[in-house]
């Protein structure tokens, strides 16, 4: 049976294990199986994710510091066109120029030049190419005369580039041989791309480029191998076993004879939660000790008896709190709790160990264990249950199992459990107790019950509950208990 977990309760539970003063992303959680045992049931294996000021949610589990470095980052590219112009009075010449400084680096005296100053990072951070788009003669206004048509040649010897540091060389060849005043000069046009650049701090995750660095609660840049899951949209799947059992509600004749299928010593599928997110990481499967001891092995309805365990503990809790509120010492309050709980169980032919019951009552209201886990703990500690196995009761998508549980078949007496545990092995019609996810705790049919060879059933485990009776009395009570239960269901 699957259902969705209550989110407010889950988030509230996780908040108990998180440091104060930090901002955690609402509903975002994460987890990691740190001890590699197949589930995330230990403290520290699940956590709420931190809402980073830089954006995103950071899982604090196994988070590591990111390395940092300064890097030029350029954006907003725009086209850039510019000219390099050089000239002198008479004669051929060669000019070297530097676009980073906007200056002539080599050439004869008497030069006139217009060299633009360019920002190297804006062009070369992303290695934008520089292309020469054309050349022509240039008449420098400060020089006398002009370039005579067809006599001045302009040649780009070295093109500026990011690779050579934005330097270039232009050669001007003057072929004029007349006697008029003249100058030799030319210009070369270029085009490139310029960007807006700034020095930024870059962070790198040592776990790999697929993990993002984010600012943590202390202002440090960290990354985590564990993804954060939004439990509001990716709701945890809770797979709970069916704890229903056969009820005494079949059709009966006028004299009370059962007309339907009769089940003898019917059990109930039950479970207890191991340490996990649902239990505030407390083990609700721990043995509470032998709280109950049955006398003849069965009395009353199995459903009523098993359910009454929780009622008895609840009643004991109420008596304990009332006694303390009235000013009674702790020991007196504990005795009142045990007496109240024992009175409830006495209605079902069950003897209660006062000391163990006090422990069960205290465990009940000091731990985050639900009703089913509480009932199972008492019944199993008293020997009324057969353990089937473990299964995952709650799983988070992309995280894993965050709550495991143990499943049992619990009966209303230790005798019932012994008969089932050993008797089923003699029957071909009952194949064990099912699986941890789907326990088979049905009772025995009359035909199956009659097929059991009780001489092969070892009741020695049961004898301790019947001391100080003699062995003859013990054997008689076992025989009478089985016979009475069978006869009462005819």
From TrEMBL:
Superkingdom of source: Bacteria
A Pfam family the protein falls into: F_T4SS_TraN
Keywords noted in UniProt: Signal
Keyword Signal: yes
InterPro entries xref list: TraN_Ftype (IPR014121)
Signal peptide: 1-25
Protein name according to UniProt: Conjugal transfer protein TraN
Species per Swiss-Prot/TrEMBL record: Marinobacter maroccanus
